[in-house]
TrEMBL record:
Gene3D superfamilies: Winged helix-like DNA-binding domain superfamily/Winged helix DNA-binding domain. Residues 22-149 form the HTH marR-type domain. This is MarR family transcriptional regulator. InterPro entries: HTH_MarR-typ (IPR000835), MarR/SlyA-like (IPR039422), WH-like_DNA-bd_sf (IPR036388), WH_DNA-bd_sf (IPR036390). Keywords: DNA-binding, Transcription, Transcription regulation. The lineage of its organism: Bacteria, Bacillati, Actinomycetota, Actinomycetes, Pseudonocardiales.
Length: 149
């Protein structure tokens, strides 16, 4: 603790600084995201999904027939990872690709029946976990009320 004290500083000031550093919003959100991910992954694994795979299925449920660019925007999964995730979903028949009828240079990804079933089963498990983590939905309400700018 002594090495953190500057000339003229107080022990109480150093304690407040340390507490402020520990209470960092970014650190707290990052730690929370990682902790939740650790809880989610085993639930998804039982359905043969990864977190990124579930995010892709979630995007496809909301808007079937998405381009890779649209999927990347909705899931925030980066290009190379997204390609691997979609390849795996196609291999397991959870999704399929088709060339865009209007622009043959683009490929669209669609949700297959097997993917919809896996998504529904996984979503039910995730809903239970969500209820456990945020029983009244107050945390979710605060998070979705933040205007991203």
């Amino acid at each position: 603790m002594r090495r953190h004290l500057r000339k003229g500083g107080t022990r109480a000031g150093a304690m407040r600084q340390a507490q402020a550093a520990e209470a960092s919003l970014i650190r707290a959100l990052t730690r929370t995201a990682r902790a939740v991910t650790l809880r989610i992954e085993p639930l998804l694994k039982t359905e043969g999904l990864t977190l990124d795979g579930w995010l892709v299925l979630d995007a496809l449920v909301a808007g079937d027939g998405l381009t890779m660019t649209e999927l990347a925007g909705r899931t925030l999964v980066t290009g190379p990872t997204l390609t691997r995730v979609v390849d795996r979903l196609v291999t397991t028949a959870a999704a399929y690709r088709e060339v865009d009828a209007e622009d043959r240079r683009r490929v669209r990804v669609y949700l297959a029946p097997r993917g919809r079933s896996a998504y529904q089963r996984a979503s039910a498990k995730l809903a239970e976990l969500e209820e456990e983590l945020d029983p009244g939905g107050e945390v979710l309400a605060k998070l979705v009320s933040v205007d991203p700018g």
